[in-house]
Amino acid sequence: MQDYNxxxxxxxxxxxxxxxxxxxxxxxxxxxxxxxxxxxYKALELTIDELEAMSPKEVENxxxxxxxxxxxxxxxxxxxxxxxxxxxxxxRVNISFCWLDYKEKNPxxxxxxxxxxxxxxxVQKNYGDTKISMAVNRKPGEKMYIDxxxxxxxxxxxxxxxxxxxxxxxxxxxxxxxxxHIDYDGHY
Length: 188
Fold this sequence. Notes:
By secondary structure, the protein is mainly alpha-helical. It is built from 8 helices and 4 strands. The chain has 3 domains: about 5-70; about 80-125, no CATH class; about 140-188, no CATH class. It has helices at about 5-15, 20-25, 30-45, 50-55, 55-65, 80-85, 95-105, 110-125; strands at about 145-150, 155-160, 165, 170-175.
């Protein structure tokens, strides 16, 4: 279910002929969600002005009627147990492992994305932080990580002709764990 701002914003952007990818990136939604919003908008036969005149709850209920929402009668997992396992000293447990453990015990339970969402809400409510991390043990310099830096930037190469050339730029880093201290002499 998408909120009022996503529904109205996506419709406005598509009516203004914004590319589909731009709308999806702006509201962090997939193509199926965008297609669903637009098809329901067309089926409603309302103008964007009429939708904006409604309350946010009315718009959300028009696009996502309560009768269409399926609710599982599944109790929430014991997130405190999983949180403690993840944050135990020297633990190598991560949220993915916790979900597998949960599904083994509750085959009809929440799927991974819903489990992650509820876990994130639990952490935010009880610990005030939504950053979930996993310890990764590495040997310093064992792996190199490379990635391209966005689109090709245009750089002015000749000031007399104003020629602009495009370049491929990439960034690289060597993985080093947080618990390593490297002196200026290069010793660990």
